[in-house]
């Protein structure tokens, strides 16, 4: 129970961006008890938060604050509307907001103008597009970077990264920008770039960036030793991300310790790669090569419970929802030779997601059969309530509406939900027409004459005042008509 409480509180603080320290005690107790009873789970709780007004307000206010900090302007409305289109009902953190703002046309237009203006004032000429992009990257990555910092960088170097022809002159502007975006510490990147092996150029940088062929002198023997040992044991080229992740540790080891450490790295690496590959195949139907693993997952591989957290992240992703809904629709079609409509697909998917099933799970067919059986049972109950109340069958819209009521109240006794639906129908004007029809019919049968409209409405009011139950309705009407 304490663990559940802690998890609920943790999800709340994390989802609310730490803006609200403690959640309402009633809400906390409700969710803790519901999860403990297994009526709901932590995924339900997070979805509830993402749809709440408190979350919406926090995201709007945070967006406004970041927008003002990064652009010093108040007119954030248009960009926020665009942001909402991409992040509705999704978990968002400050980095998502900051990234969206700094990648916007508004941000680029403003700082492009700032960079060009300051550069021209100091150098007497326009900066190249490469130089503009380099300085723009600094504004993007550092919220504290300002015009004074820009002036210092311009005065000290041709570019903020000191990119002379010997270092990056053979790279295009797009290639340099793409490479620099991989590195938080640009100085460290250039230091590594300068120390890269020259004997026989190798693909040290990620293949998706480019094959680089540096021509740099004064390499560190230790650096080459580390790279050579790694590549000998792994039997492939060393990726730059691996270099950054492991170099500091390897540099402190002697040759024997280094080889032992690299061999242990390979064992862990191979096991993680296979596990991640399997998860992506089963949950998304996608293949993963080693480059993709290193690029997208290596930096997370040391996280506690990495595999479980990765699986949970995938289950909460749009990609999983899309692939699973396609899979469920295909299985449903093969079982019942009919199409699963979008509303039903969403409800069935939620049930499947809560159980964490993958696309190949053998229980998917059983889940669909159970879902169809429960749905048919609920629809039959709705049909009977409509026949008893309105003396007609429900239309498609009404079935969908009341089906949702049964599902939203699935933890309640089904007889109680029947009463909710029946009461809702009895609140409608159509039900008044049903009562009036019964009054006229019974009056004609008992008194062998037609009834005056004023008497119909008088009896209608009395029936409604009595309190209505479909099973006793005609008995009440008959007693009122006989008393006339």
- Unreliable stretches (pLDDT < 50, length at least 5) are 158-171, 182-191, 193-220
Which term fits the overall shape? elongated
Rounded to the nearest angstrom, the distance between the terminal CA atoms is: 63 Å
Give the fraction of residues assigned to helices. Answer: 55-70%
Structural class: mainly alpha
Give, in order, the helices and strands.
HHHHHHHHHHHHHHHHHHHHHHHHH
Q: Let me know the number of strands.
A: 0
Question: What does the largest sheet look like?
Answer: none
The helix tally amounts to: 25
Strand content: under 5%
Oligomer: single chain
**Gyration radius from CA atoms, angstroms:** 33 Å
Mean pLDDT: 78
Task: Characterize the structure shown.
This protein is mainly α and 484 residues long. The protein has helices at residues 2-15, 25-36, 42-50, 53-71, 77-87, 94-102, 105-123, 129-141, 147-156, 165-168, 173-180, 186-194, 221-234, 240-250, 255-284, 290-296, 306-315, 318-336, 342-355, 364-390, 396-408, 414-426, 429-447, 453-466, 473-482. Among the domains are: 2-50, no CATH class; 161-218, no CATH class; 220-292, no CATH class; 317-413, no CATH class; 428-484.
């Amino acid at each position: 129970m304490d663990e559940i409480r802690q998890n609920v509180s943790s999800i709340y603080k994390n989802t609310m961006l730490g803006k609200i320290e403690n959640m309402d005690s009633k809400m906390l107790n409700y969710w803790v008890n519901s999860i403990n009873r297994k009526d709901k789970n932590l995924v339900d709780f997070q979805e509830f938060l993402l749809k709440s007004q408190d979350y919406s307000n926090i995201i709007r206010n945070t967006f406004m604050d970041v927008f003002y900090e990064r652009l010093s302007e108040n007119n954030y409305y248009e960009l926020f509307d665009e942001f909402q289109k991409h992040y509705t009902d999704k978990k968002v953190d400050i980095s998502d907001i900051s990234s969206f703002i700094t990648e916007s046309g508004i941000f680029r237009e403003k700082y492009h103008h700032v960079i060009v203006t300051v550069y021209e004032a100091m150098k007497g000429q326009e900066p190249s597009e490469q130089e503009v992009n380099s300085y723009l990257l600094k504004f993007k990555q550092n919220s504290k970077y300002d015009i004074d910092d820009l002036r210092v960088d311009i005065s000290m170097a041709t570019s903020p990264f000191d990119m002379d022809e010997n270092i990056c002159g053979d790279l295009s502007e797009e290639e340099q920008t793409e490479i620099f975006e991989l590195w938080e510490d640009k100085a460290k990147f250039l230091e590594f770039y300068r120390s890269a092996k020259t004997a026989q150029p190798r693909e040290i940088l990620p293949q998706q960036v480019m094959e680089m062929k540096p021509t740099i002198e004064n390499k560190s023997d230790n650096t080459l030793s580390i790279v050579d040992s790694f590549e000998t044991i792994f039997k492939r080229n060393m990726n730059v991300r691996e270099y950054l992740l492991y170099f500091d540790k390897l540099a402190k080891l002697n040759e024997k310790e280094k080889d032992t450490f690299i061999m242990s790295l390979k064992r862990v690496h191979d096991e993680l790669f296979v596990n991640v590959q399997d998860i992506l195949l089963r949950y998304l139907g996608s293949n993963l090569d080693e480059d993709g693993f290193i690029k997208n997952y290596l930096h997370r591989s040391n996280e506690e419970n990495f595999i479980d957290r990765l699986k949970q992240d995938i289950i909460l992703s749009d990609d999983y929802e899309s692939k699973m809904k396609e899979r469920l629709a295909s299985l449903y079609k093969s079982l019942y030779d009919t199409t699963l409509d979008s509303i039903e697909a969403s409800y069935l998917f939620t049930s499947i997601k809560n159980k964490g099933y993958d696309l190949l799970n053998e229980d998917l067919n059983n889940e669909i059969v159970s879902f169809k059986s429960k749905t048919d049972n609920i629809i039959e109950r709705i049909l009977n309530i409509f026949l008893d109340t309105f003396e007609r069958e429900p239309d498609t819209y009404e079935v969908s509406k009341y089906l949702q009521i049964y599902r939203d109240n699935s933890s309640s006794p089904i007889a109680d939900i029947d009463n909710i639906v029946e009461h809702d129908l009895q609140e409608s004007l159509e039900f008044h027409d049903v009562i009036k029809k019964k009054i006229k019919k019974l009056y004609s049968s008992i008194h062998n004459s037609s009834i005056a409209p004023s008497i119909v409405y008088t009896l209608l009011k009395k029936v409604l005042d009595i309190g209505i139950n479909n099973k006793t309705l005609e008995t009440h009407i008959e007693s009122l008509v006989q008393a006339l």
